Amino acid sequence: MLAQERGSLRERIVLAFFDGEELFFKGSLAYLGSLGTPNPYAAVINIDMVGFNPLADRLDLIWYTDGSAGLRDRMIAANDRYQIGVSPLLPQLATSGATILDAAPFGLAGIPAVAIVQRYGENDATFPGNYTFHTVNDTPDKITNKRLWLKAAKLTLATALELAR
Fold first, then answer.
1. What architecture (CATH level 2) is domain 26-122+133-164?
2. Helix and strand tally (H, E) in the chain?
3. 109 φ, ψ to 5°?
4. pLDDT (tens digit, 9 = 90+) per residue, 35-52?
5. C-beta neighbour count of 38 within 10 angstroms
6. pLDDT tens for each residue of 101-117
7. Residue closest to 84 by CA, chosen among 116, 55, 49
8. Which residues, including other chains, have CB under 8 Å from residue 110's CB and lie 6 or more apart?
9. In the chain, what are the domain boundaries?
10. 95 φ/ψ angles, rounded to the nearest 5 degrees
11. pLDDT tens digit string along 44-81?
């Protein structure tokens, strides 16, 4: 897909993997600190804890500060435009690092940033919980909804491609 779109891209797309957000954003904050100024990125999209919900193809869309509202709107529009099928896609505003996701350091530094997660908050009727996360049993074989994981990847790629054009 990227190879087919390469000629239409005006901006680069960087795929990065972070770890340690629970340890004061160890990976993402260190990466952000290594960047020069002005910041080379127009936006950050973070996928975290997706694929463990056997009940629904729901995702929470966490957006950091009002500076990320446009990115939030583009992601919602991409879900509709390309009929990706994340439903519901529930926006939640985060205004501090207390919402612990790797998008936080970027959003709080003024870079539009969103995170899509299967559930940020308490369990409810559309999410029974993931009781293996942050344990030694948090392994790939615990993914119960590969369809949702694929939808999250498609939504991220569709939004990134639109931003890069």
1. 3-Layer(aba) Sandwich (3.40)
2. 5, 4
3. -90, 0
4. 888 888 889 999 988 888
5. 6
6. 889 999 999 999 999 99
7. 116
8. 39, 67
9. 26-122+133-164
10. -120, 5
11. 999 988 888 888 899 999 999 999 999 999 999 999 99
